[in-house]
Amino acid sequence: MIYDELVQKICHGANPFQGFPRKLYSPDMQGWNSHHRFLTDSITEFRPRTIVEVGVWKGLSTMTMAKRVKAINYDAAIVAVDTWLGSSEHSIRPAYREDLCHVFGYPSLYYTFAANVVQQKLQDVIVPLPLDSGNAAVALQALAIEIDMIHIDGAHDYEGVLADLERWWPLLKPGAVVVMDDYDPSGKIWPSVRQAVDEFTAKKEVLGFLAEPYKARFQKM
Fold it and tell me: Per-residue confidence at 90, pLDDT binned at 50, 70, 90?
């Protein structure tokens, strides 16, 4: 099973959710654009085994993919990459800061994510990797983990989006599916995301580029 292989490599064999104290942490299914068809249709159509999500938040899109994996009874697993510390917006905007559930000044968002996964009984499909995008890419490459599908939902600035694409591209197998979040074909929302994706795909060999509010999808040749 690919889940067991990833747990062995990433978690050194330790089940990351074993013994999670469900009574101490409440699930919170808050998210945005977490049920887009690119997330589910890509699994049904391309049958990726090793899936990575960069930028997880409370895990709704991760769980959307995990549920599709289970629904089609397919041997696949999702590596959930996030620091669970929020982004610059959460330090700048007081209302956003509350979402991180600080305890003694430190965010506890990871436990909300874990509570969601356990409540939905998806802990046998999802492998958390609590690192930033750059370090996670280095770790997975060092562990010789090749990726069949990736959902990138991290940075929103031009440099950050481009950096995510550049650092994860070498880890993708030929034919791997890339789903980019926050891509608005009109360019009105998060124009920096669209600019970075458009420039990246123009210089790389990609197949089947599709875009609709608010995601883009393509394959690595």
Answer: low
DSSP assignment string, the chain: -HHHHHHHHHSTT--TTTT--GGGS------SSTT-HHHHHHHHHH--SEEEEE--TTSHHHHHHHHHHHHTT---EEEEE--SS--HHHHH-HHHHGGG-EETTEE-HHHHHHHHHHHTT-TTTEEEE-S-HHHHHHHHHHTT--EEEEEE----SHHHHHHHHHHHGGGEEEEEEEEEET--TTSSSSHHHHHHHHHHHHHS-EEEEEEETTEEEEEE-
For the chain, the average pLDDT equals: 95
pLDDT at 40 over 90: yes
Q: How far apart are the first and last CA of the chain?
A: 26
**Quick one: pLDDT at residue 38?**
98
